[in-house]
Each structure stands twice: as structure tokens, then as C-alpha cells.
Amino acid sequence: MNDVQYQVARKEDVSEIKNILFSVRGDSSKFNYQDFVVALKDKKVVGCIRLKNIDNDYYELSSLAVKPEYRNQKIGSQLISKIIDKKTEKIFLFCFKFNCGFYKKNGFLEINTKELPDTLKEELIRVKGLLPSNQKIIAMLFNKK
Ligand SMILES: CC(C)(COP(=O)(O)OP(=O)(O)OC[C@H]1O[C@@H](n2cnc3c(N)ncnc32)[C@H](O)[C@@H]1OP(=O)(O)O)[C@@H](O)C(=O)NCCC(=O)NCCS
User: Fold this and answer.
1) Is the pLDDT of residue 129 over 80?
2) Is 76 in the pocket of ligand 1 (CB under 6 A)?
3) N or C terminus: which one in the chain shows less Cβ crowding within 10 Å?
């Protein structure tokens, strides 16, 4: 959409990002606003995404959320494409099974958790500990084309 702007988050976006993440029970642990890209409409944050640099060799994509009234307008997909940009490192993510289809459409492939780097295996254990045991978490890797 032409009237949505995408940019690296600024300090003044922090409370709106946190509100959006809170509303979807998204991940706001180890919050560093400079890791986020935001989607702005009329200067208001309507969506956000984060890329955490892990050990300099690879990234974890997380904290993707779009306000309900702005969904299905490609903002989520644009946020993914803008934050990945031309990165050449591996980009992993964790998601619920029901979101796998969305990420597949956006270039990610499901992987076996055994393929995760050690730091992310630890992160997976932490994330699982926060969720009800019936919620299956899927690991995915961005498939560069
Ligand atoms: C997931 C989310 C970020 C998508 O944002 P969005 O701006 O609506 O995404 P887009 O408009 O780019 O893409 C929507 C497309 O994905 C599809 N889609 C959305 N959720 C999907 C899902 N769970 N599985 C499969 N497809 C899905 C839509 O049907 C639509 O398909 P189309 O392009 O063929 O019409 C948004 O629904 C959201 O904020 N959800 C709550 C938070 C969340 O679950 N975040 C992900 C954490 S892992």
C-alpha cells in the first residue's frame, strides 16, 4: 500500500510497539527498539517486526504483529521483506503451527529443531516454557531465492 511507510523504529515508537505486542501476546523480551521496523500510517504505528542478531552469524525474526483493522493489506508481508532486505545471514523464526502457512508464503521453510543453532535451541526451550504444553512451536528458516 502506497500510504504505509516502513522504517526503523524510533524511540518515540516504543510505547505503540509495546501496546501492539501486548495485544497479541507477542514477544517483547529483551526489548531494543532499534531491532524493530515499524509500519506507519498517518504517523501512527500499525504494525511491527523485529530481527535479533544472534552471535553475528544469524538472526531470529520475531515480534511480528499488525493491528487487526490493518490486516490482509500485505503490511505483514511487507514488514518481513523490509526487515530482511538484502541480508545474507541465516534467518530463523519460531511460530505456532497455524501461522506456518503465512510464513511459507513469505519465503520460510519449516525445519527440524535439531537444525537450530545452539543459542536458538535454548531460546526454544525458554519460549516453550512460557506457553501451554499443547501449543506446538514450529522452527522455520528463510529460504533465499
Ligand atoms: C500474522 C499477521 C502479522 C499477518 O499480517 P497481515 O498484514 O494481515 O499479512 P498480509 O496481509 O501480508 O498477508 C495476509 C495473507 O496471509 C494469509 N494468512 C494470514 N494468517 C495466516 C495463517 N495463519 N496461515 C496461512 N495464511 C495466513 C492471509 O489469508 C493472506 O493471504 P493472501 O495474501 O493470499 O490474501 C497478522 O495476522 C497478525 O498480526 N496476527 C497476530 C499476531 C501474530 O500471530 N503474529 C505472528 C507471530 S508468529
Assistant:
1) yes
2) yes
3) C
For residue 38, what are the domain limits?
Answer: 5-142
Which residues, other chains included, contact 132 with Cβ-Cβ below 8 Å and sequence gap of 6+? none
Q: What is the pLDDT of residues 14-27, one digit of tens each?
A: 999 999 999 998 88
pTM over cut 0.90: yes
Ligand 1 pocket residue status of 49, Cβ below 6 Å: no
Measure 105 CA to ligand 1 centroid, in angstroms.
Answer: 10
* Chain segment 57-82, per-residue pLDDT in tens: 899 999 999 999 999 999 999 999 99
Complete edge-to-edge strand list for the sheet that includes strand 137-142: 5-8, 36-41, 44-54, 58-66, 90-96, 137-142, 108-111
Task: Indicate the number of domains in the chain.
Answer: 1
When pLDDT is averaged across residues 88-108 and rounded to a whole number, the result is 95
